[in-house]
Amino acid sequence: MKWNCLMLAGATVAAVLLAGCGRQPESSSGGGSSEGKRIYNIGFSQCNLGEPWRVQMNADIKAAAEKHKDRIRVFYKDAQNRTEVQQNQVREFIQQGVDLIIISPKESVPLTKPVAEAMAKGIPVIVLDRALAGDDYTMFIGGDNREIGRQAGYHMVKILGGKGNVVELKGLMTSQPAIDRHEGFMEGIKGSNIKIIFSADCKWLEPDAQREMKSALSRFPDIDAVYAHNDPSAHGAYLAAQQEGKGREKTIKFIGIDGLPTEGVKYVREGILDATFVYPTCGAEAIEYALKILDGEEVPKQVILPTRVITKETLEREGS
Amino acid sequence: MSEPGVRPSRFSGARALALAGEFRGVLALAAVFLLGVLFTPRNLATGQSIFLTWQTQSDILFEYSEYGLLACGMTLVILTGGIDLSVGSVLGFAATLFAVLLIGYGWSAPAALAIVAITGLAAGLVNGVLIARFRIQPFVATLAMMVAARGGAKLLSGGIKVQPGAQEWYALQGPPPDVFRWMTSPLGWLGLQPATLLFLLSIAVMLVVVRYTAYGRRLYAVGGSEEAARLSGIRVGAVKIAAYSLCALFAAIAGAVNACRIQIGDPEAGATYELDAIAAVVIGGTSLSGGQGGMFLTLIGTLIIAYINKILSINNVPEAYRLLAKGLIIVAAVLIQRRKQ
């Protein structure tokens, strides 16, 4: 009984606090307008902050928003990888009356309707990374995984001189990015004498990639390169070769994707990876286009950001 | 084995049952091993079997050492009739803490390991107290810890993976700490990594504890019938608290091993590992209802899973078939164990 009362009291306090948080944007927007110049409120719903790439996306948005803090204020929500939570978050933003919504959706179809509701209320929506079904949103900004795979393929052909044995450590093959990174790569190496001698579904996970690479190493005496669908997998493959104790980590070339400052770029700098390909987070661009939309400018319906390769040479050129 | 009771009342009877179970367990493991011998790719240069090499065999032990450590602790909890869903998250928290102490604050490996172990024990203590004193069901109490420990891990690392140079304030900006390399490199003439040795040693120590000490007998008594154990003067609460504390301690050690293995303190590490740990215990033949089973069976169970995974991996079986085959082989392994019961 005592516990029940305590829990009820706790829940009440939590509810009051939450309600307080919910009201914040409205009151602050009121404060902004009284100064004559209106500060716009932007709601950003991130599908999952468990992945470093998405943490980076938030950091990029934060950094870009900081530069324009006299004009915009961003409210961040994390949907914890749950579609229904993200649906609610979009509706919460509508209720709060934000001026613009940025969303990086977990699933295309289930989020199409909430986003359409926001659009119907006159709130523009910028969709990042994963497109929605239909076209009831203001604009989409994303990368092109197939193109990234293709570039990785071209790079592989270049560094191996057109022939060699490659191990492919794939991302989760039921997810579109992994499929695109695989198919793009196959297009990139087409016509060369590069053979995929071993490939496995590592589900984007470093421990899995490490185990699969061990198996590949025990089977094949000559492996020339590893193509991993993300940088942690490439890193795991490197460690597997190192643990084998035959020094093969020095002869095998490792290529990854994503190019985060704390992962891929760091590994390239340390000589672990030969190259990584940047998968843009779209964070900075989202804020840039949000300002344009709020100023009433025309924006394209779709913006595909290019990838760039990061190697020791490009890092030296940038002087970082 | 025609005893009608679920729980054999005499110790000699229990020993006989346990021995029979262990024999069937070894049989199941042998069957899986045979699969490995039959379906092995061959070295392209020498034509040698890849499965039957010391390298592959030691890799199997090494790659599943974290699962083994988790299963070791999980066995204690399951013997009391409980369950611990928090081991994967505690592993993730410990991996992150270990890396933060080593890389962020530049601590020495033994000091970091000591703190990680104490933190693990503390997490287990909380589980145990919630279950034994506050009467929260093990499933619920450890589910809460599973969620909370994952949150703690993310808080601790700031949501990123902890590795040298990831943050400016980290003490280590250059190469990873030496213990990472040490833990995953073969040691001396044995050719086994310290990670593997930790796993085998933990199982060995706990095997002795479970089989030959008063505490071990109390574990079985509590799992067999809590009421009977209480009436015979056993402090049931204390037995349970100790089991959950040890379980989380092993999870914390597994966390340190995990950080060394991927050279990163990953706050997401260990997600869903609790299922593999429970599977290893159950495939070994320890009963989920408590009071039956043992540590040797868990070793067998862990090895069965490890061998299945390795065989599928070196044969490069596509993921869809891998999952199907894994399901089938697990059922087959359990059936081999049960047939003569």
Task: Present the secondary structure layout.
The complex is a heterodimer of chains A (320) and B (341).
Chain A: H1 2-34, E1 40-46, H2 52-67, E2 72-78, H3 83-96, E3 100-104, H4 108-120, E4 125-128, E5 139-142, H5 145-160, E6 163-170, H6 176-189, E7 193-201, H7 206-219, E8 225-228, H8 231-244, H9 248-251, E9 253-258, H10 264-269, E10 275-278, H11 283-294, E11 302-304, E12 309-310, H12 312-318
Parallel strand pairs in A: 1-2, 1-3, 3-4, 4-5, 5-11, 6-7, 6-8, 8-9, 9-10
Antiparallel strand pairs in A: 10-12
Helix pairs in contact in A: 2-11, 3-4, 5-6, 7-8
Chain B: H1 11-38, H2 54-63, H3 65-79, H4 87-104, H5 109-132, H6 138-157, H7 178-183, H8 194-212, H9 214-224, H10 226-231, H11 236-262, H12 273-284, H13 295-314, H14 319-338
Helix pairs in contact in B: 1-13, 1-14, 2-13, 3-8, 3-11, 3-12, 3-13, 4-5, 4-6, 4-11, 5-6, 5-11, 8-9, 8-13, 9-11, 12-13, 13-14
Supply the number of helical segments of chain A: 12
Low-confidence stretches of chain B: 1-10
Specify the overall morphology of chain B: globular
Could you describe the largest sheet of chain B, including whether it forms a barrel?
A: none
Distance between the termini of chain B: 7 Å
Overall geometry of chain A comes to elongated
The side-by-side strand order for the widest beta sheet of chain A comes to 2-1-3-4-5-11
User: Level of helix content of chain A?
Assistant: 40-55%
The interface involving the most residues is between: A-B, 30 and 35 residues
Unreliable parts of chain A? 15-35
Structural class of the helix and strand makeup of chain A? alpha/beta
Q: Tell me the fraction of residues in β-strands of chain B, as a range.
A: under 5%
Radius of gyration of chain B, rounded? 21 Å
Radius of gyration computed on alpha carbons of chain A: 23 Å
Largest sheet of chain A: 6 strands, parallel
**Average pLDDT for all residues of chain B:** 90
Q: Beta fraction of the residues of chain A? A: 15-25%
Number of strands of chain A: 12
